[in-house]
């Protein structure tokens, strides 16, 4: 499988052309850049646009090492004035808005979920209107709900989610479309499935089991899953996710026939994932099931999503399936567990330290 760096998103020739015509690359602010997806998005953007053109931001302190990779600023998306100052001071053209409270965390703290996901997004969108910015803010399969058709869920269908996360993401989608239509804000969004990554820990979602299982397999060869064995959900490996996000971010306006797109890469259940771990890692790997409140969330989400408009309009074309995800996750995480003297999950640095050829 291809490593992220060699995938279709890195046409350096195009960047060179842009530079030779005198157009400077866009300056991008990434919010929530220390989250599960943010750090990979930042490094991908920097490889393409130049380190100094991508400002990473979060309300947490970057780990040692992360700090030196390019500009980082503290930015609370709830503080509109501070956010505006960053946008003005850094000459920002595009905002990749990754700050969010995910599904399980949102049910644990609904007030925080509403605040960050709704007010934080409104701040970003309003500043985009004032300063003429392009905004990419991911949505999720969690924007669907219990009455949505579960198989091959289309872009346009019943959307009545019953989680704070889902409700706030539907609000985001509709408000983004409204600002696009009324004020010409270039808003773009994708409904991600569960995203699997070895590089940073997941941030409190219902699909976190599909990352935790690899850590548990390598650490103690057994895992207790918080979802039932047959719970099928759409998933994607982070490389496909970031490639697709870059494709949508850079797509010409005229290619877009809508502002929010489903994206689907593969789908599996916990028992299917455990079988694959047994096949590739250890025949003795044991899994048991202790469903908690996250089962109730997963039960309202699609089993598979239809994503033809994303493929047609801007080239969504995931290449990493379930077997490859298991192979990549085991290969990336195993050295860190072997090297980790202390018990428990290895540090983020240890996890990121061992690049593997995918
Ligand atoms: N990881 C996944 O499986 C999926 C993620 N998404 C979406 O992708 C985006 C990124 O998700 P992840 O990286 O997984 O989330 P995460 O939970 O790992 O990271 C979110 C980041 O937002 C930051 N944050 C929280 N409150 C903030 C505030 N007030 N101001 C600024 N930053 C704040 C957190 O410190 C954290 O670093 C989110 O919009 C999420 O809804 C959508 C579907 C699937
Ligand atoms: C699918 C998502 O949006 C996220 N991973 C979550 O489980 O909350």
TrEMBL record:
It catalyses: L-threonine + NAD(+) = (2S)-2-amino-3-oxobutanoate + NADH + H(+). SUPFAM superfamilies: NAD(P)-binding Rossmann-fold domains. Pathway: Amino-acid degradation; L-threonine degradation via oxydo-reductase pathway; glycine from L-threonine: step 1/2. Residues 28-263 form the NAD-dependent epimerase/dehydratase domain. It is an enzyme of class 1 (oxidoreductase). Its EC number is 1.1.1.103. One of its GO terms (molecular function) is L-threonine 3-dehydrogenase activity. GO terms for biological process: L-threonine catabolic process. InterPro entries: Epimerase_deHydtase (IPR001509), NAD(P)-bd_dom_sf (IPR036291), NAD(P)_epim/dehydratase (IPR051225). Catalyzes the NAD(+)-dependent oxidation of L-threonine to 2-amino-3-ketobutyrate, mediating L-threonine catabolism. Belongs to the NAD(P)-dependent epimerase/dehydratase family. This is L-threonine 3-dehydrogenase, mitochondrial.
């Amino acid at each position: 499988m291809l490593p992220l760096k060699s995938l279709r998103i890195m046409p350096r020739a195009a960047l060179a052309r842009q530079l030779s015509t005198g157009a400077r690359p866009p300056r991008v602010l990434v919010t929530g850049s220390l989250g599960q997806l943010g750090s990979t998005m930042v490094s991908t953007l920097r490889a393409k646009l130049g380190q100094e053109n991508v400002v990473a931001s979060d309300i947490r302190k970057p780990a040692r090492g992360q700090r030196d990779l390019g500009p980082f600023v503290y930015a609370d998306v709830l503080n509109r004035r501070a956010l505006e100052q960053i946008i003005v001071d850094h000459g920002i053209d595009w905002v990749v808005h990754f700050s969010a409270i995910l599904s399980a965390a949102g049910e644990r703290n609904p007030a925080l979920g509403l605040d960050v996901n709704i007010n934080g997004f409104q701040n970003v969108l309003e500043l985009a209107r004032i300063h003429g910015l392009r905004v990419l803010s991911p949505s999720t399969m969690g924007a669907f709900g219990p009455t949505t058709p579960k198989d091959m869920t289309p872009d346009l269908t019943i959307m009545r989610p019953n989680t704070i996360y889902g409700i706030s993401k539907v609000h985001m989608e509709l408000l983004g479309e409204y600002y696009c239509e009324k004020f010409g804000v270039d808003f773009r969004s994708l409904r991600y499935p569960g995203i699997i990554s070895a590089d940073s820990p997941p941030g409190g979602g219902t699909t976190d089991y599909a990352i935790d299982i690899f850590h548990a397999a390598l650490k103690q060869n057994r895992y207790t899953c918080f979802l039932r064995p047959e719970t099928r959900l759409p998933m994607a490996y982070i490389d496909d996710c970031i490639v697709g996000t870059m494709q949508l971010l850079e797509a010409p306006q005229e290619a877009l026939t809508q502002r929010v797109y489903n994206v689907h890469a593969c789908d599996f259940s916990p028992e299917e994932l455990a079988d694959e771990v047994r096949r590739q890692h250890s025949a003795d790997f044991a899994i048991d099931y202790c469903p908690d409140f996250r089962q109730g969330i997963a039960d309202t989400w699609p089993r598979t999503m239809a994503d033809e408009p994303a493929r047609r309009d801007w080239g969504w074309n995931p290449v990493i399936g379930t077997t490859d995800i298991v192979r990549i996750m085991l290969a990336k995480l195993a050295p860190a567990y072997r090297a980790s003297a202390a018990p428990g999950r290895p540090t983020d640095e240890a996890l990121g330290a061992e690049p593997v050829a995918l």
